[in-house]
Amino acid sequence: MKIEGVVAHACRIPPASPWEDATNKVSGLELIFVEITTDTGLKGTGISYTVDIGGSAIQTLIEDYLVNLAVGMDPLDYERIWNKLNRQARRLGLGVNSMAIAAIDIAIWDIIGKHYGQPLYRLLGGSRDSIPSYISEINLSAADTVDELARRIDEYVARGYRAVKIKIGHDDPEIDFERISKAKEHLGRGKKLLVDLNQKWTAAEATQKATRLDVFDLGWIEEPILYHDIAGHAALKRAIRTPIALGESLYCRQQFQQYLCADAIDVVQADVAFVGGITEWLKIAHLASAFGRPVAPHFMMELSVHLLCGVQNAFMLENVVGGSLTELGLLEEPIVVDGGIGKPSERPGHGILIDWKAVKANALTSELARSAFSGGSK
Ligand SMILES: [Mg+2]
After folding, report:
1. Alpha-carbon distance 136 to 26, whole Å?
2. Kind and range of the H or E element at 84?
3. Two domains, one topology: 3-117+355-370 and 121-342
4. For residue 235, what pLDDT is reported?
5. Looking at residue 375, what is its pLDDT?
6. Which listed residue, 32, 88, 262, 374, has the most CB atoms within 10 A of its CB?
7. Which residues pair with 246 in a beta bridge?
8. pTM score, whole prediction
9. Is the pLDDT of residue 31 over 80?
């Protein structure tokens, strides 16, 4: 089998509900889709994304450079292709290159699944056929009230969720503590509350404030401090009882290795689109398994459900409110979490059917980026 063509499309869509966390306000998700055709007639679809910025750079990198490297190769040689792309693109550092490689790699795994007539999760190990999901809020707007939060928590519990993640990181920590208390009360016994700081705190602040969070028996505290600070995370982990989750700002297995070796991470949140696709994500999951750490991949619910049902050390599936491809209006057939449980498609490959008309209708052009992007970093 040979790859004959690779085409990339990008679109920009506002989240289905307004997104705001402690360090950023999001105005648009930029999604990059890749279609790979082969000489056998099998086709694969790849997906990557970025939040607010850089979607056109990823699309251009694929179209102008990476296509040439992939055409003519056999998709079953996924390691050979990944290495070829990565060796070339590493000149660019981390980030945009692995996001571009991810789109191609995911399309290749889609083709491999179709070639063998198997759903993706079975190719990856088939550890289970479903995975518990947590609902994940991005709602730290000043307008949000504790009562509104409580109402939403009640709704999530009624929908079957047994774990909920909320954003914290108000300048006044008492507001955070009040929201956490209320959320815990409405979740009730046996359910877990997770909190996400999006790297808001300094290392010293984190030790002081996170120590006070220990009493809440939280499921994890996510990205408490700057992602570069491995020593800071290790020190924090020694100082608190709450597990530390991170990984959405890391881009390769070597960065995860440094965190694991430093004992600075409890829950590994590698994002399949950010680390360069399924080929690299699997290595990170297996590396985490050697350290006895579970994986709870960031975002990309429709793909992450396959990853989690593939590997042995799976923890939970993130379902971001307003962030599923279904909510964004980009699928021909909806993929949803039902009753708090994620189930992968049984179709060969990943089973994600993109609505290409919707992608085209929201095509990412320079004009759209310039008018829609206003910069949400706080
Ligand atoms: Mg996060």
Report:
1. 15
2. helix 78-89
3. no
4. 98
5. 87
6. 32
7. 268
8. 0.98
9. yes
- Residue 119 CA to ligand 1 centre (angstroms): 28
As assigned by CATH, the class of the 121-342 domain is: alpha beta
Catalogue the active-site residues: 167, 298
Dump pLDDT digits (tens) for 323-344.
Answer: 999 999 999 999 999 999 999 9
196 CA from centroid of ligand 1 (Å): 6
* Widest CA span in the chain: 61
Show the DSSP H helices in 165-315 as ranges.
173-187, 203-213, 230-239, 253-261, 278-290, 301-310
Domain range 3-117+355-370, CATH architecture:
2-Layer Sandwich (3.30)
Region 204-219 average pLDDT: 96
Cα 26 to ligand 1 centre (Å): 13
Which pLDDT belongs to residue 125? 98
Which residue in 332, 333, 336 sits closest to 355, CA to CA? 332
* pLDDT tens sequence across 241-275: 999 999 999 999 999 999 999 999 999 999 999 99
Query: Which candidate, 114, 48, 102, 45, places its Cα nearest to that of 76?
Result: 114
